[in-house]
């Protein structure tokens, strides 16, 4: 049995941060990843990077304005090939960086606990027994597949990872699920040229957003030609030729949607199945995540969990911050996950970004609030870009002047939201952004107008 200072199970963003830092301190680290196609984790391989690469290419496709579907399909196929090439470059970089570090031993295999301090790794042609006093679990999450009749047998049904390798642009795409991932795919496939139908079981799209924000997004998506069906219960999926027929119930009647591809985007669940957590005395939550406290400690001393598998918000940058918390805990520090402001962006056209509380959530928590909403039209940067879709909304504590939350539905909102997050983290009054000097013409100068509208 080989002894290490730290064992890290899973090769995600948080793992990279933690492993690099420990190795730089001269610690011996074992890094275990099940697949050699997933070095670096979900984000660079089948998540953030490839999807946003395709978001960018879809925007290019829209600008080019191809005349026919075959031209659109050819551009799409080339974009998928370029995406695959990018992924191979990332995989190579990850292997060279981590596999070539003398303080890091990279195991490609499945890890399972034998005891609280012992891990068995089973690879293609090896089995290894390793031990450490500190073990960190970062195995991420996997797609949830709902029990829909015929879905498993459908030849053209994919989860997001599979869709990213599909070189044939579907003329008609049905998306099952109206969450962030499903709507992102719906948006960029529509721009590539697919006819898109989104089936969501919840009665309203973007139920976590305020009604005015959700309505603005829904109106834009519908205006782009995406068919949005809320309150849809999918009954079955059946092969038909090279495509499929999706049968669903909505508005009191059964309907059918014929398509060339089905994207199943019904959420993700913590990836714990192969870990044998019982042997380590590690408990899970009712939702199946590894149970952790605010320092990411599990129920067993010496074992931590970070990222999706720990039930944290499913963003790669949260896994990274979880890793910072664990490293601080290694040193006996007091950093915790409590009270984090978590910004996020949904990469639609334009993107929707938010941090903090919505208006309805702030009121539910008992805050006395002030709000402001301004349209994108009229902003100098919107004229430069020639893009006028969207709105900006701010929620402020009426007593303290602190920013409680902001929703930005506009071009470049994915960059702008980080400015608001910094202001919230530093507990700055909304007047700081109201009176801040911004360069011109940029989208962020809209904060002058947005917060000036707070009365």
Give a written overview of the molecule.
The chain is α/β, with parallel strands linked by helices and 455 residues long. It has three domains: 2-142 and 269-330, FAD/NAD(P)-binding domain (3-Layer(bba) Sandwich); 157-266, FAD/NAD(P)-binding domain, CATH 3.50.50; 344-452, FAD/NAD-linked reductase, C-terminal dimerisation domain (Enolase-like, domain 1), CATH 3.30.390. It is built from 13 helices and 21 strands. The protein has helices at 13-24, 42-46, 48-64, 69-99, 160-163, 180-192, 211-223, 316-330, 359-364, 380-385, 413-425, 430-435, 446-452; strands spanning 2-9, 29-33, 104-115, 118-123, 127-137, 141-143, 157-158, 172-176, 195-199, 227-229, 233-240, 243-250, 253-259, 261-264, 268-270, 303-305, 344-346, 352-356, 369-375, 391-397, 403-409. A hairpin with a 2-residue loop joins strand 12 (243-250) and strand 13. Helix 3 runs antiparallel to helix 4 (69-99).
Strand and helix layout:
Blueprint: E1 2-9, H1 13-24, E2 29-33, H2 42-46, H3 48-64, H4 69-99, E3 104-115, E4 118-123, E5 127-137, E6 141-143, E7 157-158, H5 160-163, E8 172-176, H6 180-192, E9 195-199, H7 211-223, E10 227-229, E11 233-240, E12 243-250, E13 253-259, E14 261-264, E15 268-270, E16 303-305, H8 316-330, E17 344-346, E18 352-356, H9 359-364, E19 369-375, H10 380-385, E20 391-397, E21 403-409, H11 413-425, H12 430-435, H13 446-452
Parallel strand pairs: 1-2, 1-5, 2-3, 5-16, 7-14, 8-9, 8-14, 9-10
Antiparallel strand pairs: 3-4, 4-5, 6-15, 11-12, 12-13, 17-18, 18-21, 19-20, 20-21
Helix pairs in contact: 1-8, 3-4, 3-6
